[in-house]
Amino acid sequence: MIEQIVPRAGTPILIVGVGSIGQRHLRNLKSLGYTNLAATDTNPDRIASVSEHLGITTFTDLETAVDQFQPQMVLVCTPPALHVEQACIALEANAHIFIEKPLSHTLEDVDKLAALAEERQRVIQVGYNLRHHPVFQRVKTVLDAHEIGQIQWARLEIGQYLPDWRPQIDYRQNYTARRELGGGILLDASHEIDLALWFLGQPTVLCCMAGNLSALEVNVEDSASILARFESGAQADIHLDFIQRGYHRNGKITGSAGWVSWDFPMGMVSLYRGDAKTTEVLQFPPDMNTMYIQELQVFLETSFRNQFSLDSLTQAVQILRFVRLARQSSEERKWLDFA
Question: Per the structure, how many domains does the chain have?
């Protein structure tokens, strides 16, 4: 667990993109005691609303914001197609970088980003916030302690109807619905891919069936089912969609000595021990914001300590490679090696 730090209120922190997640990060930073905050967005209505309701400095373009505000930390919260370019601009100004997931929509210029971060010795953290939720931290603890023995297979599922994600906006304008902005369920629901890699390790081969199954007006895949095998010998079934009504995020991992399952909306983790034939059920409070605060605290602490590492970036690149192979597999209708 990250050590809780004393807020340095005057630290200049810039938020790039003030959609729903950018505004969440702004509110959370204010709640943590940070007062020297600024935001930039090309949408004049959003930036005016943030200025009015949160009382922070605002800009309408990133270059001006970086030049005039001189941020020590930058949070990139724009559509994925803009992430790498904007992160590089901030790195050139010697800022530490937090990038919302996914890292990008392609692998293009990712090597340039890594090289620039290493040259400047700046922190880069990619925002896979589910790793900071107690449900998944409990699952990870069970697996690391070998409480269910040798992992054999896993099933992970996420499904939610896209128009219900952000009901305040037309879903067709959401980047998730638009390939040119880095949308599609494989990228936007890549949390489950991240969890699979975190829980199971390095993948070796996968196949995928992805496509458009709904009548939603989108130009991306709205559903994907992936089968993957891992170096450990375990296999996984990962299903992602934005066409299910309601909200579903659940999974199960079976091992040689038992199994562990989770129901994220219910905040529930169940652990079955085969020898004792007992099931332990843990219930976690329905708090969806603390994990965002904790991931921010990790970023703030590592940045203040100048703890340079490419680990988070490397993990995010692995996810992009996984998504690229999944799409290729679906198009070519065949298994592909994760070389």
Answer: 2
Confidence of residue 1 (pLDDT cuts 50, 70, 90): very low
pLDDT at 169: 85
Q: Is the domain of 149 the same as that of 277?
A: yes
Can you spell out the DSSP letters for 110-153?
Answer: HHHHHHHHHHHT--EEEE-GGGGSHHHHHHHHHHHTTTT-SEEE
CATH label of the domain that carries residue 281: 3.30.360.10
Question: pTM score, two decimals?
Answer: 0.95
Asked if 259 and 198 sit in the same domain, the reply is yes
Same domain for 167 and 189, yes or no, is: yes
Same domain, 211 and 302: no
Closest alpha carbon to 224 in 262, 175, 180, 189: 189
Same domain? 49 vs 65: yes
In a domain? residue 6: no
Bridge partners for 96 per DSSP: 73
Angle between helices 62-69 and 80-92 (to 10 degrees): 30
Model confidence pLDDT, tens digit, residues 66-117: 999 999 999 999 999 999 999 999 999 999 999 999 999 999 999 999 999 9
Q: What is the mean pLDDT of residues 7-33?
A: 94
Nearest C-alpha neighbor of 123 from the set 156, 81, 91: 91
**Are 92 and 184 in a shared domain?**
no
CA angle 234, 235, 241 (to 5 degrees): 145
Mean pLDDT along residues 150-161: 98
3 has a pLDDT exceeding 80:
no
